[in-house]
Amino acid sequence: MITYINATNLEFSNIRNEMYRMRAEIFHHKLGWEVAVNDGMEIDLYDSPELNPTYLLQLCDRSHRLQASMRLLPTMGPHMMQGPFKKLFPIELDMRHPNIWESTRFTTQFSSGQNNGRLVRRSTVELIMGLCSLAIDSGVTHITGVFESPMATVYKRLGWEPHLLCKSTPETSTLPVSVGLWEANSATLERLIELHGFEPNFGNLQPNDTQIAA
After folding, report:
1. Which domain holds residue 50?
2. How many folded domains does the chain comprise?
3. Is residue 148 part of a domain?
4. How many CA atoms lie within 13 A of 125 on its CB side?
5. Would residue 113 count as lying in a domain?
């Protein structure tokens, strides 16, 4: 199931905090990123309500357990490509546009014992379908994001390949990363649905519906 919340939805604080905990587990504990973790949650300045972030969430249809998430920021305001990501690339990229969102903090996680490969793939596919659908409904035509360069082949297999704007160099980043631009339109969404054989299930999440991961 796909749903979305923002930083001012106080009634959804449980699921939002679970997302922050999942981000801490993935980015800090597993990947070793230098991110601030407080009370087990990874929260940065781009999560500030003043910046109007939207959180796209993918949950189990039956249990409503959080399985994947990403953060979306309007590029007309402060966003990571203007801030910490700028130094990763040899040229300056101005992504500011009213019809472009920046996607960051993509996470997906499942408990041990599950068929992780199959579930992660379906969760990821539904999340990107939800992103494309939400962008269309919001009048957004493109999504930008920074990703580890080998992920380009993964995006191609998933059916939503970005237009590559720039790659990092050994002088700008020890980890090869790229910045891309994805088109969000009806043709893209229809292609994703046809390729994967299902449509995103947008659900009406209620504040007490979600389960917290053990």
Report:
1. 2-196
2. 1
3. yes
4. 20
5. yes
CATH code (residue 132) = 3.40.630.30
Average pLDDT over every residue of 22-36: 90
Q: State the Cα angle at 138 between 137 and 144, rounded to 5°.
A: 110
Does the residue 139 lie in any domain?
A: yes
Per the structure block, which two tokens stand in for 118?
Answer: 């199959």
Q: Determine the pLDDT at residue 111.
A: 52
Question: Tokens 């309500």, residue?
Answer: 49
Contact criterion met (CB below 8 Å) for 104 and 81: no
**pLDDT tens for residues 70-106?**
999 999 999 999 999 999 999 999 999 999 999 999 9
Domain assignment present for 213: no
